Records
---
Amino acid sequence: MAHELPARLVVSHDLSVSICAELGYEADDPYAVRALFHTLDQSGTVEWLLSRDMLAQALSERTGHADVHMWPTNDSGRDVVHIVLTSPAGSALLEFPAQGVESFLRETWSAVPPGTESTRFDLDAELAQLLAGS
């Protein structure tokens, strides 16, 4: 399942740019949300993997780890979720409508309810695949 959401790339306190973003979820990878961002010139895309639990937590409180940090805020009467993504090439501050994020998450929870992710995840198969590559 995939949802296109309006997003804003925050360049500075006074400047932000609308970008196309898509959040995707697959029951076969129940812990992850794929975030796909179209470049400003529409010539390519950038993909990040996010934690579904962390994205849900960001609807109500600050959360994050390593190169991904998220938090909710109210911006001029709009509830939004801010996501900061950091890589060796730089960082980006993105803004998503909280209602759109919540709607997307509700769909993922219908597919794989919270707390049941491990029933969709074959740890033995994953370990075998990892070990086969070494």
---
Amino acid sequence: MSQHFQLKKEVSIAVLTVSDTRTETTDKGGALVRKLAAEAGFTVKESAIVADDLSAIQEQVSRWLSREDVDAIITTGGTGIAKRDVTLEAVRPLYEKEIDGFGELFRYLSFTEDVGTRALLSRASAGVVGEKVIFALPGSTGAVKLAMNKLISLELEHIVYEITKHRME
């Protein structure tokens, strides 16, 4: 969490794996998001796997956006540049505000700590929809670990506070 910030409520997430090939058994990226989220003190309310299909992604994300008990949605997979990678095309139109710094920092950290110049192929992204935040991560476990440990786990409580603080004013 932010060094000088602590939200006074439980933060709940939903985890979406986007893949044409992953199953409950082989979904290492989604499983790692759930594990790292729990270790960070977040509650995983639900998870799902959908195909690399724009409508399927939007339908699942929209279901979670309508739930009062979900503060954040973390997707994994479908953020590359291949023809089938449509996660961003599915979630970006939903964003009311894009959190540009998330993608920028993710690519910077990927470049400096992990994959070098291949980081430029990542379209990792985050955005606000109403009082919820969506993070779109690559599907690799290395990318999930980096995003969760270096960015999301440290700032999610702060983000949730910022997008819901109007209720407290």
---
Amino acid sequence: MEGKFVQSCACCGLALMMSLPSLLIAGTQSGCGKTTVTLGIMAALRQRGLSVQPFKCGPDFIDPSLHLLVTGRVSRNLDIRMCGPDWVRQCFSRHADNQSISVIEGAMGLFDGGSGSAAELAALLKVPVLLVLDVRSMAESAAAVLRGFETLDPRLRIAGVIFNQVGSARHLQLVSEAVRRQCRAEIIGWLPRESGISLPSRHLGLHMGAEVELNRQRLVSLIEEHVDLDRLLALAGEAQIPAAPPAAPLEPVGKVRLGVAWDEAFCFYYQDNLDLLQAAGAEIVRFSPLHDKALPENVDGLYFGGGYPELHAAQLAANHTLREQVLAFSRAGRPVYAECGGFMYLCEAIADSEGGRHEMAGVFPVTARMGQRLRRLGYRTAELREDCLLGPAGGVLHGHEFHYSDIDPMPDAVRRIYTLDDGRAEGYLLNRTLAGYVHLHWGGSQEAARGVVKGMGAGAIREPPLLPPQSSSL
């Protein structure tokens, strides 16, 4: 259902603002309990029978899977840096409505991330901010922290605060009295110190929603007991969202069947990318490199997203039949696209940090080697050096990179299709298999989805396939 227009331009009558109950839950820093509070509020509102539309600030894949777990609705990434402000506003207005409450989870601390920060998102959408403040090691100083957040950016309205890690009634009294004296934000509630509601994490962040055994009832009980949900809903109801600029429809360019790898090992996909592919004419057919013995029938192309192939490397390696079919599909010149974990699966092998080696599909003649430390992290832009599946030469794509593995030197015979803004040449192309480490979001470059559908509708190449050069891995 569309949001209700509440204000119009006197000159042209176009709607300027929409009444969409919304709030952004932000943190003072990473690790303050923002995700736990967000999930608790979402779950408590759902238990009241309300419809909750979740969103996530930034490029994260994991938190949206947790949002889906507690709300039953797909969470959308709102990332100004990757997609631009127009797309973000359009995406929000497309999925928010005035019959539900939209809850946006921030990223890191409220002001962290420059133009992609939760603060910039809150200012763009004009949503009230609910700040999570970890008071575990402070008392009256909490007021100074909150006051600083309130005054740093006058565009923002920090409407409320939730104290996390409160140790005692006396602790709560000291923090609350100081905040009431010095700050504008309303105290919406607090959560006690309790380890039983923390979320497990690993090298790429928290566990995915499908893997988490969330003590939902305990979390909901804490929220119901300690958070004023009625006041929270009232604050969210005050949101007046600027109407988004009109979006040009994405016309279909053909009909293709696209096989998308989807299981515990391959689960990092932006739902908006899949929606754009479907709008361009793709039928999404899921398959599992972990569990399926054969590729889906009559698919025109394959898409391997990121995820955790390193955690499932032995099982992926044991599925010889599917690995061989993927290799044959690629060598036949059929189009394949892969990102990060999907790229690792297309390599010869994944070597773990303890010396183990697991054979993969073998499309690219290198080994992906896991490390103990983060290898790459950050936003990336990619300029296409030549025409390819993602568009014509000169096109610019936007994405994010986050991985602990690296590959052996790629042989020069394997073409590099794009140049990253840090100077690296990536986007490895062999036959019509295109892969790299960067997770691309096509919100700011929607023609990429049309290019993928066009390319996958073109069939296999007719010339003999290019066999990979001799591996340089040890």
---
Amino acid sequence: MRPLGWALPPTAPGWPARLVEDSLVLRPIEVSDGPAWTATRQRNAVWLQPWEATVPPGGDARPTSFRQLVGRLRRAGREGTTMPFVIELEGRLVGQVTVNNIVRGSALFASVGYWLDQGVAGRGVMPRAVAMVIDHCFTAGRLHRIEICVRPENTNSLRVVEKLGLREVGYAPRFLHIDGAWRDHRVFAITAEEVPEGLLARVREG
């Protein structure tokens, strides 16, 4: 018989998780998000297309349905390689922040990617959301370094890393297959030691 208060251990450090700040909520993606997620993506198709990851020739096929996408992300979450958050603002799904390529061992490293509904752009949603996720990675997630890679042409995403105060640490030619071709990226990073009070506190201070 299980002792009182016994519970299964988390599948991976820091996951699953629900992060809340006022009307901004980040939580695990769910199959039930399908209609809202699909409608948001379709409404923002032109806005998002230049920055969308694509499959290069000979690459692995991407999920063909939202259910398959969620299944893949949830498996990766259980395995500890991904933290797939959706962003809710005032109860409405408006985007996504995903912690990718989590490496343990001597690295304790991950990368972060994100997208946002154009209708709420310019309201400071994404800097706050990314800051919340990075703070979570440095605390409950037990990671040490987070990297964000941005196409030089993506001025909106560059403003996010600027507001977060991430250092530019490199340049990666033909780094990711985006919008049908291999694209160069600027590389930004931050370590836990740089934000002992938390990255969200830095964003709040402006």
